[in-house]
Amino acid sequence: MCGPNCQGKPNVKQITVGGQSVGISGFDEAMACGLAHLKGSDSEQKKALMDELKKHNYVPESREAEYAAAIWAEFKPLRSKQMGWLDDSYHGIPREEIEWHPSIDYSKCSSCGACFKFCKRGVFTFGDRTEVTNPARCVVTCTGCLSSCKEGALSFPTLVDLREQLKILREKYNLGK
Ligand code: SF4
Ligand code: SF4
């Protein structure tokens, strides 16, 4: 259960699943369940979406991955809006394809949680140890949390590496120079 938002009469929305238009019952309830897990990781949000979707719809096991991808694609813009994020792409390139996020050197990290508290985008989670669990939420070119780490345990790709990546991805998506 995700809370009161998930209850009520299921509604239906047509979405594209594996290239086919499919009517999804309880669409709004599934979205509400995802939003109820905003503080969790992407995988927790994906699970919440699918758990709710499966309560209202028959999902063949062989097509589960397609349904999961489809409902996730519907959810991401809603999440971005809710969180005040711009979108899930960077100059036309899907954000998830860009390797830009902090990495933690655990030989230096004291698990103080300062980076977790600093980042408002939910890139880090703070449990037994601090981890980068949502790397694609990191704003491309942001290095804000570096200053929060007194141990010098955080690092980012270089801007040269980033430029090289973007060049390759622009070619892949025919986005010009
Ligand atoms: S660089 Fe910015 S967006 Fe990325 S994790 Fe650090 S504070 Fe968050
Ligand atoms: S701020 Fe630095 S030391 Fe503290 S949890 Fe983050 S990476 Fe580890």
Helix and strand pattern: EEHHHEEEHEEEH
Terminal Cα separation, in Å?
A: 48 Å
Q: Largest sheet, described in full?
A: 2 strands, antiparallel
* C-alpha Rg (nearest Å): 18 Å
- Content of β-strand: 5-15%
Helix content: 25-40%
Can you walk me through this structure?
There is one protein chain. This protein is of the alpha+beta class and 177 residues long. It folds into two domains: 4-83, no CATH class; 93-172, Alpha-Beta Plaits (2-Layer Sandwich). 36% of the residues lie in helices and 15% in strands. The protein is built from five helices and eight strands. It has helices at residues 27-35, 42-56, 64-83, 114-118, 159-172; strands at residues 12-17, 20-25, 89-90, 93-94, 103-104, 124-126, 130-132, 154-155. A two-stranded antiparallel sheet has the order 1-2. The protein has a two-stranded antiparallel sheet with strand order 3-4. Strands 5-8 form a two-stranded antiparallel ribbon. The protein is globular. The protein starts with 11 loop residues before the first strand and ends in a 5-residue tail after the last helix. Bound molecules: iron/sulfur cluster (2 copies). One iron/sulfur cluster binds at residues 104, 109-115, 130, 148-149, 151, 153-154.
List keywords for this structure.
Alpha-Beta Plaits; two-stranded antiparallel ribbon; single chain; alpha+beta; 36% helix; binds iron/sulfur cluster; 177 residues; 2 domains; two-stranded antiparallel sheet
